[in-house]
Design brief:
Length: 378
């Protein structure tokens, strides 16, 4: 079947990857789908890089990250490592003149994220963060319907991101270690996706938050002193006067990767569920409907991302592929709609710090605005 997607990547970019885990696999599949050469990989050790080279089908394993970023044959570097390492690795790649795709959170502090935004602007290279849920076609359809006024004036927003992979005290991962993952876990890891999606779809900004968080297990299998949160609940207000609530949890039994947003306006409600990404629920006072992905019935931007015919389900990897393809298109000199940049990564860091502050103080917190910085594709 033909794919007439209008956004295409420039041919034969050479992509390098830092990290050898699950996200490196996802990034490398997306880079390959976008037409890049899977040119090199570096990891925590030469042996780890060599194993990943064979597993992922990478052309070359590098002895060190520095060797990879200094190689003039590498055009774009994908940073797929633990959170606390992102700043140093992205900085090294930007200073070497590389385009950068850095996993979120971009940084574990807003100050460090600001530094990377400024560095990317000065370098003039493309620097993106994979807020990939933006790239589901039905998310773009929801955004278009709100922007065109079909939903009416937004009054309320509900959002949740629920997982169960850390449900038990025996469940463990490097992310529970604040030294590797940063001072926030559940919110920085998945709450950032949720807030980015809300702000992207509504084109509104969260301005005030009131949050509570809980750490259910002070110790886990390999970590005796867990400081980061397992769940966060928050209420918020937006710049336009809408109010909303958020629930983020990594200890919700049966929920594997359930990101949901529901936005209600004066005319109707739109709801998107990432675990059922082929549909958009349109709530009406009479005659609610379930809109199924069919490019002939979608807005132009949603149709652009609808790369398979109706009835052929698209999912997470397809969204990731679209994000990487649009990043590579930006490297080629075009400016795709909705590409999440380092500035969006900074926005997530600012929101995370506001949530932490509110949870610690028990008070409402005003969310600082992210100042506009000069530069291309920041």
């Amino acid at each position: 079947m033909e794919n007439d997607r209008t956004t295409t990547a420039p041919s034969r970019l050479r992509a390098g990857f830092v990290g050898a885990g699950f996200m490196a696999e996802v990034h490398s599949r997306a880079a390959r789908a976008a037409g890049a050469e899977i040119a090199g990989i570096a990891s925590s050790s030469r042996a780890s890089a060599a194993r990943a080279k064979d597993r992922l089908g990478v052309e070359q394993a590098y002895a060190s990250v520095q060797d990879l970023v200094q190689d003039d044959r590498i055009d774009v570097v994908h940073v797929c490592t633990p959170n606390a390492t992102h700043v140093a690795l992205a900085e090294a790649a930007l200073k070497a003149g590389k385009h950068v795709v850095c996993e979120k959170p971009l940084a574990t502090t807003a100050q460090d994220a600001t530094h990377l935004v400024e560095l990317a602007a000065a370098a003039g290279t493309v620097a993106t963060v994979p807020f990939v849920y933006r790239f589901h076609p039905m998310v773009r359809e929801a955004r278009d319907r709100i922007a065109s006024g079909q939903t009416g004036r937004i009054s309320t927003i509900q959002g949740s991101y629920l997982q169960d992979w850390l449900l038990s005290r025996d469940d463990d991962n490097w992310r529970v270690d604040a030294g590797l993952g940063g001072p926030s876990r559940a919110f920085a890891d998945i709450g950032s996706h949720l807030c980015d999606l809300i702000e992207f779809v509504t084109n509104d900004r969260i301005t005030r938050v009131g949050a509570v968080s809980r750490t259910l297990f002070s110790g886990r299998a390999n970590h005796s002193d867990v400081q980061t949160e397992d769940l966060v609940a928050a209420v918020f207000a937006t710049d336009t006067g809408a109010v909303g609530n958020l629930l983020v949890s990594q200890v919700a039994p049966g929920r594997k990767n359930r990101l949901m947003i529901e936005i209600s306006g004066s005319e109707n409600t739109v709801q998107f569920d990432q675990e059922a990404p082929e549909t958009l629920w349109l709530g009406k006072r009479a005659g609610s409907e379930l809109l199924v992905r069919d490019r002939d019935a979608l807005s132009a931007d949603a149709a652009r991302l609808s790369v398979l015919p109706a009835g052929h389900p698209q999912g997470y990897q397809d969204a990731f592929n679209a994000f990487v393809a649009d990043t590579y298109t930006a490297i080629g000199g075009q400016a795709p709609e909705g590409l999440p940049t380092f500035r969006d990564g900074l926005r997530a860091a600012v929101l995370t710090e506001s949530i932490i502050e509110s949870s610690n103080s028990g008070q409402w917190v005003d969310v600082p605005a992210v100042k506009q910085l000069q530069g291309v594709h920041q």
